[in-house]
Amino acid sequence: MITLDHVHVRHKARSGGLFRRDSVHALTDASLEVRKGEIVGLVGESGCGKSTLARVLTGLQRPTEGSVRFRGRDLWDMPGAERRRDFGSSVGVVFQDPSTALNPRLTVRRILRDPLDVHGRGTGREREARVEELLDLVGLPDHTLGALPGGLSGGQRQRVAIARALALEPELIVADEPTSALDVSVRAQVLNLLVDLRERLGLGMVFISHDIQTVRHLADRLAVLYLGRVVEEGPADRVADSPRHPYTEALLSATPSLLHASERIVLHGPVPSATEPPAGCPFRTRCWKADDACGTAFPAATAGEEEHRWHCVHPQPVRRAAAGV
Ligand SMILES: Nc1ncnc2c1ncn2[C@@H]1O[C@H](COP(=O)(O)OP(=O)(O)OP(=O)(O)O)[C@@H](O)[C@H]1O
C-alpha cells in the first residue's frame, strides 16, 4: 500500500554555528513496504529516526531524497489537493501524547467532526451519526461527546485520538508510541483496542515503539531502526526468535523473554550523534563484535528465509529453536 524507496531525511543542524552547515541525518536510505492489512512494528532506541519515518509515512515530512509510493503512485508527484484528499483520508495517525495532540479548546464532538467537515463527508446528520459510531468503536460513553480533552483521563484522551484517526475510514493507522505517555494501568487496554480495531476493520497498522518485546507480539513484520537506517527486518517471529543483527539482539535482551532467556547485553553510551554518524556500520561504535571490516561501508543486505533481511558482516548465529532443530 505504501512503499518507501531509499528515503533520506536530512535536517539543518540546530547547533551548526554561524559558518557551519551541519546536517542531521534523521533517516538514511530507508526502504520499507507496508502491505494492506498487516501490522508492521518499527523499533529502535530514542533518536533512531522512528518518528521521522512515521512523518514520512503519513505525508507530514517530504523526504530529502528517495520516493514514497502510495498505491503505486509517487506521493510527492501528486497535486497537493489530491494528496491531501486521497492520501490524507487513507492514512490516520495516532501520536504519543494525546494531551498535546488534541486541541484543548474543542469538545470531543468537534474533534471527531472536524475531519468529516474538512473532507465534506456526507450530510450534517450523517456526520453526527458517524461521530457517535466512532465513539462507540473506541468504547467511550455518549456523554464524553460534550467533554473537553482536559476533563478526560489519559486513556480516554488516547481513545478520542484513535477515534479521530479512524474518522475517514483509513486503510492504515500509523501509531507512534501510542501508549508510552499513558499510565501503566491503561496501556494494555489501549493496545488491545488497537489490535481489536485492526481485526474488526481490516486495517493496516504501523506500530512504533522502543520496546521490541511489546511490538513482537502485535506485529506481523518487524523493522529495526538504528541511527536512521533499517538494520534488520522480517517476519516478527523470525526476527524476535532468532535476530541476526547484534543491535536487535541487544534490544531483545533488554527485556528477556521466558522462551529465550539470553544474557543481558548492555550497550554502552547513547546512540551516536545523527549529525556525524559513524562511517560504515553505524552500530560498530557500540557493537561487541565490531572489527575493521565494519568500518568500510554500510553492510549490504543479507537475505534469509521469508523476506528476513539484515545488514551485518558478523551476524548472530541462527538460534536452534527458531530454526526448528
Ligand atoms: N526538525 C528537526 N530538526 C533537526 N533535527 C531533527 C528534527 N527532527 C528530528 N531530528 C533529529 O533526527 C534524529 C531522529 O529523530 P526522531 O525523532 O525521528 O527519532 P525517534 O527514534 O523517534 O526518537 P524519539 O523516540 O526520542 O522520538 C534525532 O537525532 C533528532 O534529534
TrEMBL record:
What protein name does the entry list?
ABC transporter ATP-binding protein
Keyword Kinase among record annotations: no
Name the Pfam families for this protein.
ABC_tran, oligo_HPY
**InterPro entries according to UniProt:** AAA+_ATPase, ABC_transp_ATP-bind, ABC_transporter-like_ATP-bd, ABC_transporter-like_CS, Oligopep_ABC_C, P-loop_NTPase
Under the heading NCBIfam families, the entry gives: oligo_HPY
| Keyword Transmembrane helix in record | no
Q: Name one GO biological process term.
A: transmembrane transport
